[in-house]
Write a structure and sequence with these properties.
Elements (H helix, E strand, L loop, with lengths): L2 H12 L1 H27 L2 H9 L5 E6 L5 H6 L6 E13 L2 E2 L8 E5 L11 E5 L7 E5 L16 E3 L8 E9 L7 E3 L3 H5 L7 E8 L5 H11 L8 E6 H14 L1 H29 L1 H9 L4 H42 L8 H28 L2 H6 L10 H8 L5 H12 L1 H33 L6 E5 L14 H9 L4 E12 L8 E8 L7 E5 L7 E4 L1 H7 L6 E6 L2 E12 L8 E4 H5 L9 E6 L5 H12 L4 E5 L6 H35 L1 H9 L4 H10 L2 H30 L5 H4 L4 H28 L2 H6 L2
Parallel strand pairs: 4-9, 6-8, 14-19, 16-18
Antiparallel strand pairs: 1-10, 1-11, 2-4, 2-10, 3-7, 5-8, 6-9, 7-8, 12-20, 12-21, 13-14, 13-20, 15-18, 16-19, 17-18
Length: 780
Amino acid sequence: MSGTGKVVRSGVGRRKVQTLVIVLVVAMATASAVLGGTLVVASQAPFDRAFKQQHGAHLIAQFDAGKVTESEVEATAEDDAVSQAEGPFRTVPVDALLDRGMRLPSLTVAGREKPGGAVDKVTVTEGRWAEKPGEIVLFDNSGAGGEMAATQVGGEIEVPDLPGKPTLKIVGLARSVSESADAWVVPEQIEELTPSGQDGGYQMLYRFDSAATKAQVDDGRDAVMADVSDKAVTGTKSWLSTKDRATGQARLLVPFLIVFGVLGVFMAVLIVGNIVTGAVSSATRRIGILKALGFTPAQVVRSYMAQALIPAAIGAGIGVVAGNLLTQPVLGQTNRLYGTSDSGVVWWIDVLGFGGGLAIVAVTAWAAALRAGRLRSVDALSVGRTKGGGRGSLAARVCARLPLPRSITLGLAQPFARPGRALAILVAVGFGAAAVTFAAGLSTSLAQVQATQVFGDVAVYPHGPPDSSGKPPTIDADAVMAAIDDQDATTGSGGLARTQVAVPGVTGSVEAYGFTGDKSVYDYRMVSGDWFDGAGEIVVSTPFLKATETEVGDSITLTSHGEDITVTIAGEVFNTEDRGMQILTDLDTLTDADPKLTPTEFNIDVKAGTDAADYADTLNKELEDLSAEAVVLQEEADEYVLIINSLTALLTLLLIAVAAMGVLNTVVLETRDRVRDLGVCKAIGMVPRQTVAMVLASVLVTGLAGGALGVPLGMYLQRTIVGDMGEAAGYTLPSAVLDIYRPGDLTLFALGGLVIAVLGALLPAGWAARTRTATALRTE
């Protein structure tokens, strides 16, 4: 083994604590980088592969069959921008009931002879394709947990609003990567499903030579629509928006992973630099001996770099493996949706993560080790380990006047003697406190988002067998509300009616909620504007405003049951249901077009301390003859929220451990450098517990200062990253989700910095207390 190799092996063996610290900090930084990068790339892989295999449509266009002919629609495919096209297919919106009486969302049904074709090859996942009238194939969204997840092939759906209430047999489930329709039938079936007096629509599917960007898709759309009247086009959908929805949830994780990755990189630079600098400082005499034996400055620098790079390589390897393993549960839902089995491993991201971690350590260690290379042999051999005094003498005199035990005041003065090392502890503790503050804030913000999905403590739904027409049992809304109001524990209640409306510029129907009663039960969080105040006003979410190119204060015309309803957008609300495309309004806004529309769901707030289950049991006795049933509402944890919280907790614990070990390393260096002073203190009567107190006191000031500085950084990160996550999902977040810190919480987080510092100093404090006086005095 070469001389340099022996020096490296000896250095790594002697500094076990420092070696472990480097392994942990590099592993955490690499794991965060690999996980974030992999999610960006691998989350899109199942969609991209399915889109390629199925020849997905770059653009889907809907036309009004009453304003354009089939030949005119077909002629749009002849434009030079179109490489392939399929259609036109006749389409019609259908409101249907499953054979179990459950109403489905309004379905866009397309008439299509076969699932294959030049564009949008629909994949049958269960059963077969429709071959004759009376058969239907439904879109299979079971991987996403949608309404069709409970649908069984062989069942039936009924269209109760059409004459004769036609019934269609479900012969198959299928997936379209383009999401071109909710269901498919043979073309001749469309005529029977189209209401009298309506024309239905045409659908065209296009693929373009260039469609990688929004601008290219827009150019292709403008080209094919140039010869068609704007009034004939009822809506278009780009494949890029479909891709965003398909891969959006996995990408939600990327912003907060970036935070931990950046914090990890800063910690790696700080700690590796501190370790190498400390190693050089404490081994000045050893460096002099090495140079006297013939080591060149470059060899000395390389030896100290290698002492950092060996554990860094181990840590980077662990981080790459951990990052790939953590990717699996995140990509699981995307794989289930498209029937793929992507492992999530992206080799070039692994290489970049591993190489990047080593590069950062190498540069940091090189900069810190340069001092060792520049030392002259004679100067290195002529100095001892203990530095000259003078620095921090003023602070020592000030601390000595404090009414505290002398062991404490000695410890409080130590950071001022070595401001560089004190700064290293302050920064490490500050990053740890920032991570804790950010993690707690992120978890609370996600809890606030979840809280918007549950309204009230108890809900009342229709209950009982369907009527003779197959519809769910009819509820007497006034009687149900009276029974609810009669309960002493009721503090608020409201009714909810659901219907479908058409919105200009939006393909397919949009769900509208009509509210009655106490609307405070539906605890929606406003982003801007106001909650609706009576009929004629609506509140909507960010995706609706973007889709319709409207803003708060604008008027828009809705169509329900053939009647136009002009409404004003009173406010923007945070609402993720139906991908943010719901309309919330007063029930009276909708009853002019549909006088029979009445609430079919009731939500109830009960008095604090009331057992919701007992309340529901009591209310059910009053509802027995009203075809309704009360059930207790329970918040269901979202899979991605659980994943985010779990990853946040894991990465935060790792960062806290790294911060504490960074403190430990610095205190170890400081204690060893001052070991002779420690021996003198012991010789004049300092007992072990006083030694421990002195060492712990040396990190009190930096611990408190680091906590105080880390909390504002954590708050800034929480607000920025949560806002970015909302933007990535297409929503503007309300202040209730962003502004979640309370003064008491911030105080605890700041004190958390002190806890991190004390935890990191405990082991070296114990080591100092156990050091024998004679041993300490002989070290010089």
